[in-house]
Model the fold of this input.
Amino acid sequence: MELSLLLMEQIVSMALMVLMGYALVKTGHLKSADGRVLSVLTVYIICPCVIIDSFQIEFSQEKLHGLVVAFVAALTAQLVLILLGHFLRKPMKLSPVEYASFIYSNGGNLLIPLVSSILGDEYVFYTCAFIGAQNLFMWTHGVMVLGGHTQSWKKILLTPNIIAIFVGLILFLARISLPEVVGVTLEKVGDTNGPVCMFLIGTLMADARMREVFGKAQNYLVCFGRLIVSPLLFALGIRLSGITLGDPNLKQVLWVTFLALSAPVAVSVTQISNLYGSPEAARRASTINVMSVVFCMATMPLMTLVYQAVC
Done:
């Protein structure tokens, strides 16, 4: 219960930051297109700094084991969702955007500040497992679904977050500590991650037509799958495996992955639709994203209660 309440407090705090970004656009001080600047800062500077900084912890076999377990869990969860979505596409008449929205969550922008504020910076380390696993699928399967294209492995491996994970992992395994001035810089830049990401979501929401967001029945179906079905399946898998029984630390580690699977639709679905699909597909993706952001304020704490009770 305590963890769920802490999560609710943090989500409310982030919702207020989202409203700030929303207000700046609605009052004419910013345009929705200006959100691209925040997006570039987040993707190319802030998130990589957070990731590398998260690996600047003392090496231990327990941490390495937790990271491997989290990565395998994330890969397995993504594969299950891809297969489930594939079988549901025809009977539920899911468009490519709706299919991708069901599978891919905002496991980076939202996950990192939440984990940092609730569990502490040392657990941000484990968010890298989910980010790495999802990036592998997002830029292969996701791009193919949304645009009919495929990305080369070179492009996938050269995305900023993947590069940051490789750099951080090498430093962690080699037990190399960065110079203090570099470490302080990474930490201070990383501290801006939460507010900047929330401002970005606010600018995206300001451009959405609320009638399109809440007036389409299919949006509710997709959000139910993304926010309820996805985390419940993961919790069921953890329960059946018994992997967390008698291991409180591993239960916390896998809660990070669970939280990622409880998160709203990935902003990347909109971005990829814009790059490889069509403006109409991108707008459709943004409406589902907005609804999932609104509903997650209630569903994420509720799902955490389920995880604590079941796992």
Observations:
- DSSP finds 15 helices and no strands in the chain.
- The first helix runs from residue 2 to 26.
- Residues 57 and 172 are 7 Å apart (CA to CA).
